[in-house]
Design goal:
single chain; nine-stranded mixed sheet; alpha+beta; Ribosomal Protein S5, domain 2; 44% helix; four-stranded antiparallel sheet
């Protein structure tokens, strides 16, 4: 760590320009101001002096490219880190309390006298703070109190997995402050999943955390969640003539935990019919052969969701290979197949009973019309609300953005890049 004043001097001298460029900061003037504001925010919030030793850390949001709701069934996914992140200034505070201030949100204080999950903290930032500290402590590291001031471009409900980015950020900070930087990115991702599942109370898979923690574009096989196989996928969308757009549907993820939880529950019910825990342990032919009995035992939606899993799991390799080979025609065709499967089989576009508000369906329809038969679009992430994803030809990008924002609101279409760096210490 360096004293805060020394970090500020390094920033003013341009010494952070290289690290910022590594995070795909396209506007260095804005990037420098963001770091300067971060240092000011840390000082103002915690009363820190210029001689306080601090560290700067970053964790990116993620985009799911293929494998919609496959990770929690130990399936395969294709995902990537994006150039929107959580950026934080952190320092030990000599107490047993973690103080976490995310700009624009209430201060979160978590006392580490107990590291057990607390029911009253479920679905809150405090649960993630406690959960990540507990995961580090369980690995034998002496975690104690520290202060964090963070600013986030990964907004809650953005579909870029703000919770995973927050978990990875906390993991990177704890790794640097207390764990001698011994934790690898996959371990930090696994810690994040535990914090989200057990402490936050959301039954997520491991994709979000892995994509954020590892960085770049990655194909991940979760057949053994304790040791996921991560394959780096070389991708240059701009070089292939396309842009990645994430489009905000205008619907919030709030109050949709039951909808999300039903997906792994129903897929798990199909697996349980065959005496297995997850669908990765079941053959697709078994489901087809037992279809009449399965429909009676677990219901039609569960069966359809299982069939989506098998198909999307196979698509991951097809998409990853196509990207590496520069075969955009094949890639886009498989993206379309995946999107249609999510709508028809997985059924994670519209919440149950929603009639007047079907924001995701509207967003997909608007995007398809704006693409005019080119590119591809699909639901992005968990679904039901949040965002959709589109791969847009560069020559169509401005027209696409204008048409989408005319229907869904100004600023609803975000053009993103795949960030090569995952969770990282930006400045020691």
């Amino acid at each position: 760590m360096q004293e805060l004043g020394a970090v500020r001097n390094a920033l003013n001298a341009g010494e952070l320009d290289g690290p910022l460029k590594g995070l795909l900061c396209h506007d260095l003037t804005a990037g420098r101001k963001r770091v300067a504001d971060l240092l000011d925010g840390f000082q103002k919030t915690f009363g820190a002096g210029e001689n306080t030793p601090v560290t700067l850390c970053s964790a990116p949001g993620r985009t799911e490219i293929c494998g919609n709701h496959t990770d929690h069934q130990h399936g395969r996914v294709l995902a990537g880190a994006v150039d929107l992140d959580f950026l934080a200034c952190a320092a030990p505070n000599g107490t047993n309390t973690i103080r976490f201030q995310s700009e624009g949100w209430p201060l979160v204080e978590v006392n580490l006298d107990t590291l057990e999950p607390k029911e009253e903290e479920k679905e809150s930032t405090a649960s993630l703070v406690r959960g990540m500290a507990a995961q580090a402590a369980q690995r034998g590291y002496p975690v104690s109190g520290f202060d964090v001031y963070a600013t986030s471009e990964v907004l809650p409900g953005s579909g870029l997995s703000s919770s995973a980015a927050c978990e990875v950020l906390l993991g990177v900070i704890e790794n640097h402050l207390f764990c001698r930087d011994e934790l690898d990115p996959v371990t930090i991702a696994q810690m994040g999943q535990k914090a989200e599942n057990i402490y936050f109370g959301k039954p997520s898979g491991l994709m979000d955390q892995t994509a954020s923690s590892v960085g770049g574009a990655v194909a991940i096989d979760f057949a053994d969640p304790a040791a996921p196989v991560v394959r780096t996928v070389a991708v240059d969308l701009a070089g292939l003539g396309y842009a990645l757009c994430i489009i905000d549907s205008g619907a919030s993820h709030a109050d949709l935990t039951a909808e999300y939880a039903a997906v792994p529950q129903e897929m798990g019910a199909v697996a349980a019919y065959f005496g297995k825990q997850v669908l990765r342990e079941v053959e697709e032919d078994q489901v087809i052969q037992a279809l009449p009995q399965l429909r009676k035992a677990v219901g039609d939606r569960a069966v359809l969701r299982a069939l989506h899993f098998f198909a999307d799991d196979k698509r991951v390799k097809l998409e990853a290979d196509a990207l590496e080979q520069g075969d955009m025609d094949t890639f886009l065709e498989v993206v379309k197949q995946s999107g249609r499967s999510s709508w028809d089989l997985l059924q994670n576009i519209t919440p149950i009973g929603a009639v007047k508000e079907q924001a995701m369906a509207v967003a997909l329809t608007v995007a398809e019309r704006a693409l005019s038969g080119r590119g591809a679009c699909r639901v992005h992430g968990g679904g039901f609300a949040g965002t959709i994803q589109a791969f847009v030809p560069l020559d169509l990008l401005e027209s696409f953005r204008k048409q989408v924002e005319a229907c869904l609101g100004e600023g609803s279409c975000h053009v993103l890049s795949i960030r090569p760096v995952g969770g990282t210490v930006l400045w020691p």
